[in-house]
Each structure stands twice: as structure tokens, then as C-alpha cells.
From TrEMBL, chain A:
Sorted UniProt keywords: ATP-binding, Cell membrane, Membrane, Nucleotide-binding, Phosphate transport, Translocase, Transport
InterPro entries: AAA+_ATPase, ABC_transporter-like_ATP-bd, ABC_transporter-like_CS, P-loop_NTPase, PstB-like
Name by which UniProt lists this protein: Phosphate ABC transporter ATP-binding protein
Organism whose genome encodes this protein: Shewanella hanedai (Alteromonas hanedai)
GO molecular function: ATP binding; ATP hydrolysis activity; phosphate transmembrane transporter activity
Localization per record: Cell inner membrane
Single Gene Ontology BP annotation: phosphate ion transmembrane transport
PROSITE patterns (UniProt xref): ABC_TRANSPORTER_1, ABC_TRANSPORTER_2
TrEMBL record, chain B:
GO MF terms held by the record: phosphate transmembrane transporter activity
Organism expressing this protein natively: Shewanella hanedai (Alteromonas hanedai)
Family note: Belongs to the binding-protein-dependent transport system permease family. CysTW subfamily.
UniProt xrefs under Pfam families: BPD_transp_1
Residue intervals passing through the bilayer: 27-51, 79-112, 124-147, 159-177, 216-239, 273-295
Domain named ABC transmembrane type-1: residues: 83-292
Keyword Cell membrane: yes
Membrane topology, record value: Multi-pass membrane protein
GO cellular component: plasma membrane
Keywords tagged on the record: Cell inner membrane, Cell membrane, Membrane, Phosphate transport, Transmembrane, Transmembrane helix, Transport
Protein name per UniProt: Phosphate transport system permease protein
Principal location: membrane
Amino acid sequence: MNKLEVSNLNLFYGETHALRDISLEIPARQVTALIGPSGCGKSTLLRTLNRMNDLISGVKISGDVTFEGENIYSDVDVKQLRMRVGMVFQKPNPFPMSIYENVAFGLKAQGIKNKKHLDSVVEESLRGAALWDEVKERLDTPAFGLSGGQQQRLCIARAIAMQPEVILMDEPTSALDPIATHKIEELMDELRKKFTIVIVTHSMNQAKRISDKTAFFWMGELVEYGETSQVFNQPKDKRTQGYVSGEFG
Amino acid sequence: MDTVNKIRTSELQLAQKQTYDWVGKGFHLLFLCSAMVGVVSVATIGGFLFYEGLPAFQEAGVSELILGSEWLPPALFGIFPMIVASLISTAGAVIIGVPVAILTAIFLAELAPKWLADIVRPAVELLAGIPSVVYGFFGLVIIVPAIETLFNIPAGNTILAGIIVLAIMILPTVITISETSLRALPSVYKEGALALGASHIYSIFKVLVPAARSGILTGVALGVARAIGETMAIIMVMGNAPAMPGSILEPARTLTANIAMEMSYATGIHASALYSTGIVLLVFIVLLNTTLLYVNRKRSC
């Protein structure tokens, strides 16, 4: 069962052709890694999946992206889409408010005020992000007081509080040290049981460690897409082989 | 032995280099002197005001001067009505002007299409450049007659007229600084909020404005300082009667207007009483600024 399907997607930033005729299917409850050198279009593709590119002026898109069979650019309300397709960003971006308010933010934005309900969702989400034990005594303190790795797990908690079906991760560990990265990777191994995860990463080792499927992008094209072990061990395309073996990129 | 010599030579070179650092020292001095200009000015102004104003405090007594409600120089020097007039006109200007300014700043930073922002922003900047005497004209020609008709009173030169003129005068300061601080926010705040399915408006009020709070408060502080210090426009529209106003539909004289109107002919203790009006004004501005700074620091996280 495919959660997201991209077919014949082309994307232009003004005159720049950033994504060229991309088609791929993202299976449910698996981790799909998007890899490739900087500027290859992997982050751009990720941001089309929850329509974050809408924020940039001058973006033109053709082709289809469907989420559970519905076209996200015509059939679905963008706010509904973003509630069901959550996102974690490259740099941890907690809001300037308390830990509790950060996690409850998405629900409050939907007008949910029931304190008991919010309390239970906050606890559940922080547990889900493996952060509860570290912060349960100081939920009312500012989120900026947390370490970088904790902040990123808070952002994951904030995303899963909305009970999304998909979580998009845009290089979620590139600003973190190896220990914090390891914790996030462990967490992703838990999250894959409940969520479909699409992750953009610069680290090929990370892609190897955590993903089920890997897509390799090169100059706006999807060069190769398959099982992670196949892409890394028996790449079909020469460019993939060059990249995963560390010859360039 | 060779190494020791090398170290000695490099120490020697370092020492020589240090003696040539007169450029750095010179600039250091230049920066220090520049920084001192402001400090010295403030100290001089404050010292001068106190030196000239103290005789009036000694003659009339601090409580007579600050709490007295009769201004009849050279007999009575009560400036309480003027303190009230200054505070009410400033507070009124803030209550009207600040919300308008913040909404405008949000509109410019987040919502306005580019072509419209390109019309509004220069208009706001132009507003900042209009001399206050021209604001006085505007108040005299438009607002004062409007108040006469609207409230059916004989003279529209009232506190209300002053409030409206001041509210418009503080707009550019508050708008420009608030917009700048909203634009300076990293885009990840907005993206993070929208990515959770929050609406744009909700994101603005719950994430962006709180995140830019310290900059917005700075804008408000500067707006307050401008309002309480404004003189010319106020003299032109507020009627300047030195009596205690009964409502905002009566004329009143602010601290600044009191100084500006009588300084040209005041002598002796009368002149000293005007300086002491200046002391009171200075104290109010310092109090307001420190309060806002304190609020700003305490609540930022």
C-alpha cells in the first residue's frame, strides 16, 4: 500500500528547473530516504509533499502528488494535509514558549482547549519522542532551555501530537552531535512502527542504517530508487555507484 | 639551542609588532570618544536642569510644585495639571496608536501583496519625516473642527485633539521598528507553525508576534518617548490652559508646552520653575524607559 505517490512531477523556481519528471511511490510504515548532493532537489521534493513550497513565490508545479489516492494540490485542504503529513526541520525550531505549549501548539491551533485531553496528548507525544523522562519536571519552562538534541526531539513530539500519518524529516540530525543523532535514529526506529517516514539526509551511513528504501537524486532527476540494500550494494546506475561509493558528491 | 633562538626571535618580532599598533590604539580612542559624546551630553543636560531648577523646588517646596494645582507665576508654581495632561495625552496616543501600528507592521511584514506594501511603506516613512509643526497644522485644520462638530463644543482645542495628533505621530516609529523585528525572525518559526496545520493568522499572533515581542516593545518605548516629549504640535492643538482638565474634551497644557510657551519671557524664580518642569519631564521619561526595559528583560526567554 503506497501512502504517497508522485507522478511526472516537474517543479520550477522561476526559470530554474529544480525537479525533472519525478515519479516515485512511498510505501506506508517504512522509512524512505532521499539522498544526493546539495542542490539535487531532494529537499524540494520533500517540501512538495506537505506543500511547504507554496510559501515561496515563483514556484510552478506540474504533475501529480497523491496522498491516499487524493491529489494534494486539488482535492485536499492544505491545513488538513499538513495535519496529516507532519514535518521536522533541519535546525531544531521550537517556538518561543514553554515545552508544554510547544507540544500542545498544533492542537490548540485547531481550537482544542480541553485541559485533560491536552495534558494526555502532551505526555503521550513526549513519551513517543523519548523525551518525557527528561522534561516531565519542567514542562512549564522555556523550550530554549533544552539542548539541541532535546529540542529536536521536542519538535518530533510536536509533530506526532497531531497524530499524523506521515512525518517528513529534512536532514533532522545535521545540526546535532553524534550522540544526539544516535538518539534520534533510535527514535525513528520506534516511529516507523506507527508512521510513514520520509527523510532527507546528507549522511549515506544514516540512510543505510535507518531506511528501508532509498532514492538517489542528481541534478533534479530521480536517478535510482529501490530497496536500500540494493541501492547501496548493487546500484544499477553509474552515477549512483559513484555517489554511494564516495567517488564524488 | 636552535629552538630557543627561534622562540626568542619570534618574541622579538611580536614585541616589535606591538609597538606598531598605534592604528588600533587610535581607533580604540576614537570609538571611546564617540561613545562618550552621548554620555557627557546626558550628564550635562541633567546637571544643568537640576542646577537651574532646584531654586524653584526650594522656594515652592517639592510637594507644592509637583502636587500643586495652581500655576500663577511668580506666586504659585503647581504643575500637577500639566503632569496629568502629559500622562493622559501620551497614554491616549499609545492606546490608539500602538494597536494600529502593530497591525500595520504585521500587514506589511506578512500579509500585504508586494505592490501594496510598496505603497504603504513609503507613506509610513514619509509620515516620519513630516515636521511636528505641520502635524500641528493638520490638527488645527482637520481634527480641531471635527471635534467641535462631533461633540458640539465651542472650542475643539482639547486633550482629545492632542491624543489623535500624537497617535498619528508615533505610528511611523512603532510601525518601522515592529516590522523590522518581524522580518528579522528566522523563517523556521513560521514554517514550523504552518507545518502543524495552523492557519497563517494563528501563526502570526501565537508565534511570530510573541517571538518579535522585544523589538515591538522597543518600538513602543520610542513611541512613548516621542509622544511625551512632543511640543510644537501639542501647543497648536491642545489649548494650553494651565488649569486641571475635567475631561479629555477640555483644553490642557503639557509639561513640554509649559516650558516652550513661557521660557522666552520668564525670569528669576519663574524661569527656575520652568527648569523644574523639565526635571519632572526627564524623570518621567527615565521611569517609563526603565519600566519597559525591565518588562522586556523579565519576560523574554
